[in-house]
Every structure is written in structure tokens, then in C-alpha cells.
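Hi team,

Filling in the usual template for the complex we talked about on Friday. All components are listed, including any nucleic acid strands or ligand strings, so the model treats them as one assembly.

SUBMITTER: L.P.
PURPOSE: interface mapping
COMPONENTS: two
RESIDUES: 966
SEQUENCES:
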Amino acid sequence: MIWGFIMAKDKKVEQITDMDVDFAQWFTDVVVKAELIDYSGIKGFYIMRPYGYSIWENIQSVLDRKFKELGHENVSMPVLIPESLLQKEKDHVEGFAPEVAWVTYGGSEKLPERLCVRPTSETLFCDHWQHVVHSWRDLPKLYNQWCSVLRWEKTTRPFLRGREFLWQEGHTLHRTAEEAKAETEQMLEVYADLCINYLAMPVVRGRKTDKEKFAGAEATYTVECMMHDKKALQSGTSHYFGDGFARAFDIQFTDKDNTLKYPFQTSWGVSTRIIGGIIMTHGDNSGLVLPPKIAPVQVVVIPVATHKEGVLEAAQKLTDELKAAGIRVKLDDSDQSPGWKYAQHEMRGVPLRLELGPRDIEAGVCVAAKRTGGDKITLSLDNVAESVKSLLDQVHNELYEKAERNLRENTFDAHSVEEARELAEKGGFVRMMWCGDEACEIKMKEQAGVTSRCIPFEQEHIGDVCPVCGKPAKHMVVWGIAY
Amino acid sequence: MIWGFIMAKDKKVEQITDMDVDFAQWFTDVVVKAELIDYSGIKGFYIMRPYGYSIWENIQSVLDRKFKELGHENVSMPVLIPESLLQKEKDHVEGFAPEVAWVTYGGSEKLPERLCVRPTSETLFCDHWQHVVHSWRDLPKLYNQWCSVLRWEKTTRPFLRGREFLWQEGHTLHRTAEEAKAETEQMLEVYADLCINYLAMPVVRGRKTDKEKFAGAEATYTVECMMHDKKALQSGTSHYFGDGFARAFDIQFTDKDNTLKYPFQTSWGVSTRIIGGIIMTHGDNSGLVLPPKIAPVQVVVIPVATHKEGVLEAAQKLTDELKAAGIRVKLDDSDQSPGWKYAQHEMRGVPLRLELGPRDIEAGVCVAAKRTGGDKITLSLDNVAESVKSLLDQVHNELYEKAERNLRENTFDAHSVEEARELAEKGGFVRMMWCGDEACEIKMKEQAGVTSRCIPFEQEHIGDVCPVCGKPAKHMVVWGIAY
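RESULT (copied from the run log):
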């Protein structure tokens, strides 16, 4: 065992960059070495390998079930948008047109109008609704789409900023503003639940400032997470559009009172970016650490001394038993050494490892090692599935607590721009009062190097004035450096 | 009841074209009126509305489970392919380059190389494998991707021929040719199983002629189905590539004997086209008829005389009971008349309707009407879920038998080109011997108006010579007019 442990250590040291030396390089090493990603021949386009894609499938499964429970239906919209359609909503086109990919030829024929590969699909949903929504009986429309979108970014990184990324985009249309607003809030809460209860990522819920909101939205709500390096990652957003798009696309319905009205709209999305968030929240110098609820492999069973009679059979039996209990388990019976396997599955972030050797079998036990560390634990092979489930819950809780401590201990209050700058340089979130003027927000960027992450729902009165301009403060804002 | 029935009839007559008068228009009417599809602003790009997309989700669920049981893993490849990558395999690029959509601008910047929106992803998988496959230990790679692809078709129709369509594309890489060939055959059988046991569509399994095979394949296998109008629909294909792509992309691995070898490759796909097949196989003049296994709504419960006390409650109770038994059931408690509802859910192809009125409730029964017709059936409310499951199986079997009869009664043997022409004009599949020369295949198209659908696995010796040229016959071929 000692030998295996040392081998594992050696392997790690030579394989990935120390996260405290170069966090960006550590991240790149992890996504490649854990086989989440391969680079394609085009900048900013990534191949999601089976292990990476499987994380996404698990996230999809959680969200898709929740969306449907709340009455949403999935649809499929075209991948291309005519330029004229994209231009119908003024703010929206200004936000997206500079960063879309344009299709100009179909086969050998030059197209009469350029078509962009969708960067988001508000315009497509509106165009469709304009065809099919006529009466209050046709509302609400509660739609969602799982797809990929393209945004021609200048700097790119796997998961965090791709020219292509996968996401879900929810789009809903409602009779009243109140109903649409409630939907916006409800879906933000679905995202918060995903982060907290499935990904073990604590969140700050809040509203974006006008400067940071989605192109075309009246209000954008966000869940912001703090990464290991104390930077912020926007992990899910929910937008309230009012009736702006409905007016631009001439969507009207006959209401119960027999008058024509414009409906109210929302959209909300979570993307594969959140996998980047998982990596940067929980990962360590041995590689990936996956929250058990979305880990493709929750438990790896490693037989020790496989040449001894009965070891492989016992390992198979243990694996089958866990599988039957609904646990995602993998038996590693390859011909590599146990030490190599330990390092390999640590790199891949498997939450729990079970070791099983001849003496364990004789004693009717196996030995569990949590990816979150701590002493190894001897588990009775009787009722092992229950013990394993309980250890997986424990791993989830330990991950959440560690991340929550990181957020708590690195959130500071500032009462001057200078103080904000010093705190931001140290790393972390800065809470500071704000007057609501965009000018002060721009100054914060210029002078303190931070952007507004959100106006948290949970407000605290930490001062009377905006420290930037001295005018009366309207909100407490969380500032930080964002991915 | 009589009144409801008449209303339903009236509604149908005014709503959709008679399928025996104009089958193409009937098809278009059904996809629109059953709310499967809406037209987008771009020719050949369709919106799959919730009801249509839900059929696809049910098909996905069947296939995805089966793929995974057989050891396949899902991945995500880029949506764009550099022109130089597409050109690496000669036959492949000749087949696809004329019909792809080209991205030439990213934002305002003209791209140094054109990128096509993927028409299929063989080249992307090969490029990735070239990076990651080094040893026999890395094989097999058993991958699948769910995505949309683009092909710039001239004539387009919903489901049957879109410039964009959704599909799954399986791509696998193997140590030996035998293993790859076995995979090709296995996956064709998965498709046959989908058609027969889930979609109630009988199939002819066979191999495509060289003229009809996939661009770049050594062999293409197909399941062909006969539609109501006796035309053929290719419903799933599986391709064996040999090592042609591996050589073109320089994918090599060190085998167990320590020598460098080229691996062998397959791909296989089913697309949303198969939904067109379901519609054209089972639909009738009342609209869509959905096979129960993939119907989004398997059972609709319609309360009759809802103003009477206890009716809505009893209908809700019945609905809940069926739902608890795992049946996809919908209660239609809207304020429309029962007759309108009957017609509406017939149009949408719901396999089973349950009517529940005050007298039924008193008698402890409900009344079942199968979408496939026949007398209404009185079901006891005790054990109703079991009765309903049995009726759903019955609907499946009735659909399969009807389609199988259509295939059997409209498949004919021909012994001359003239006879083949006459039979084809009458409608149906024509079985005829063939020498194996492409020249004769072209003559069959010119003189009999048919193309080769496949060389069936189940061969019969119906003659010694190829009736086109008189030379010795090699195979029996099924000929027909295809979608």
C-alpha cells in the first residue's frame, strides 16, 4: 500500500502543474489529463470526451427533470438565424452581432442573406411565437432547448470561454408581467439548487447591474460562485425581458377581456461553463475532484493482489452489489499496478475508492478512501451499499463546506475605492455600497480593477454613501474579478 | 356520444387533405395540424414543437439506453469542420462538399480558411482519434453523438428532407476488421429492433449497392421500410469503413505483437427522418397515429358531462392511477366539447382514449377507444392500469400487422425490366435478380423508374440471370421508389 501511495505521489508531481504556482496552467493540465477535453483544429472549439460529456449528461439529467416537473417542454430551433431576424431587437443585435459566425454559402451558391450560427435563440423563439400565439389560451409557453451556440471570442479556454459551448436555453412567454417575473425568479432558484445540492458550490444570488445585464433584458439575475483562486464565475443566469421582444416581433394575444395585448418574456441558461466551475471550485494538486451527485464514476473498486485466488471474483461481486443499489461504480481490473490506479482515479476525481485485497476479503471488509482525504475507513461488506451512499453524502458535504469556507473567508467589506483595490488584489469578493450610477461602476473597474458581480438579494447596510462619488447609496454590490 | 362523434368527423373533413387524393399534402397537413413542426424563416429549417420533439426524445431514450448497454459512450464534437479536414478522405469529400453550408466570417473578421457546418462527423472523429489512439489498449473506441447536421438540399420537406436535421451518429474504431464488421451488423440490428419493437415498422434488412452506399464506406447496411404510399424510406444505416479513413488520417496503433497497424472503423445513424416514417406508415385520414411505445401521450382521459358532480374528480383519480403505473397519460379537462377533444387527440395520434361520464362512474367502468379503431371497450376501473397496458400492446400489434400486410402485399417479383416498370408504377417494392453491374442499376432507374433499395440479407433465388443484361445474376435486389 505504501508503495502504491508513493507511486501515486510521484505520478502527480510529474503530471500536473501546482495550482498555487500557476492556476491557469493547472486548470489546462486537469482538463486534458483527466480526459475531459481534446483540442480540435479550430481555436475555441473543443471535443468533449466521454468522461467530460458524461458530467454534462448528469447535469442535464438533473435540470431536465426539474424543468419538466415545473411544466417546461423541450423543443428544437434552427441552428441558423437570418441577419434580418437578429436585427429586430435593437439592444440584442448590438450585443451579439459583433461576435457571431456567418454562413454565406450553401453548397456552391452564395446566399442572398447572411445567416448566423445562433449565439442564443431569443429571436427564433419570438419568430415562432409570432406564428402560433393568438389567445390567452395559448399562454404560457414554457420552452427549453438543449443545444450548442457559437460566439466568436478573441481569447478562449476549455469550458470557460469557448467559441462553441453547450447549454440549455429556457424561453418562456406569459400573459402577465408578474407571471414572467415569478418564472425568472423560480428558474434562478433552480440554478441555485443545482449549484448547492448537486455541484456542492455555494452561490451568491443577485441581480446584475444594467451594465452587466443580458443584451435586450430588462433585468438579469445571476448565481455567482467563488473559485479556488477567489475569482468569480457566473454560473447561471435568468433574464426578464418585459414585453420588449414581443413588441419588436409583433407578438400579440387576445386576452380574457377581449383586448389585444403584448405578452411578457423570460429566458434562462446554464452552460458547460459550469463544468469549469466544478473543476476550479473543488480540484486540487492531485487533479479533478467531482461532486458525487454528478460524477460519472462515483466509486472505483480496486482489487489488490489480483493474482490471489478469489480476489477478482470478490471485487466483481462488490461492484455488482453497488451497481444494483443504483451507484455508478467501476471495477478497475486492468493490469496496471494499484498505485498507478490510485493516482489515475484521483486525477479523474472519483469521489470514493474501495480497495479489496485477500486479507480484507477474509475479514469481510473493504477499505474506503475518500477523494476529499482523511483516514482510510474500513467498511463491512455486509450492507456495503448503505455505507457507500453515506460516504458519498459525506464527500458532498465536505466539498460544500470547504467551498463555503473559501467564499466566507474571502468576502470583505470595503468603504473606499482604495480599500476595494487592496482587497481585490489580495483576492476575493468585495462588498461595497453603490449609488447606482454606471459612471461609478466604470471607475471601480479603472481604479480598483473589479467589476460588479451582482446586487445580492440579501442586502446589508454597510454604509450610507457610494464611496466612489459620495452620493447616497442605493445598494450593496458584490465586486470581484470574473472569469 | 353520437354528437361528439359527428363533430369529430366534421372537423377532420375540413382540416386535412385525404391521404389517397394527395399523400404529400396530407403529410404536410398532419405535421402542421398535429403541431409537430413549424416553418422557420429559412427554407429547409424547421422548428420541432414540443409534441414533435417529445417523439424524438422518446426515440432517443430507447436508443441511448441500448447504445450504452452495448458499451458506447456519448461525446460532443465541434459543429464546424475546416475545409482542409473535410478534404482528407477523397470519396467522402466528393460526396459531401457540394452540399455543405460554409462559415466564412467570425464576427467582422474574414476567416483564413472556410469552415463547414458538419454534414456528418467522420472527419472530426478521425482527427480526434489521431491524437488519442496509440496502443491496442486504447481500442475499441465506441462513441456516439446526438446533434444536428446540415446538408444544403435543393428540395426540402419537414422530417423527410431538411437542410438541418437531428440525428445520432455512432462512430467506432476497432483493432480488427472482424470486430468492426460485427459492430456494423450489431448496430443495424439495434435499428431493426427500434423499428419493429418500438415504432411498429417492419423492415427489410440488407446491404446497399456500391452506387447507393455512404461516401467513403466500404459497405453500407440499411433497414428499409415501406410507407403507406408504397414508397421506401431508408430508416437507419450502418457503415463499415475498413481502414480507409484511418489511412487518410494517419491513425495507427501499436498492436499486441508490437507492430504498428491501422484500425478499422464504423459509423451508424438514425435521424428525425424516422418520425416522417412513423407518420407515413401509420397515419390515416383522421391524422397522426403514434405507436404507443414512443407516443408522448399514450392515453388521454376525457371526462364527459364535467358539470355533473364527481366527474372531474373521478377523471383525475383515473389519470393519477395510470400515471403511477408508469403510463404517459394526459387528462383533458379543458372547456372544449368532448367531440372537439376526440378529434383533436385523434389528430395528434394518441393511441388510446378513455371516456368517463357519470353513468360510467356509477358502474365502476370507463370506455376505451383505440386510435386503431374497432368497437369501444368497457374497462372496469379496478385494475384499469393493467387493462390499459394490454390495450396499448394491442394497438402496437395492430399497427405492426397492418404495416406488415402493406409490405407483404405490395412486394412483387419481376423477371424483366418491363415487368419491373409496370409493378413500380402500380406501387410497391420489386424484387429482381441483378448481375452486380452499376450499368444495369442505372438502366433500372432510367427504364423502370426505380432505384435499388438494398440487397436483402434474406436472399431468394428467383431467377438465374440479371433481366437487364442477361448475364448471370449475383443477388436478388429490392427495387423501389424512395423518399
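MY TAKE: Chain B has 15 helices and 23 strands. The first strand of chain B starts at residue 37 and ends at 39.

Thanks, L.
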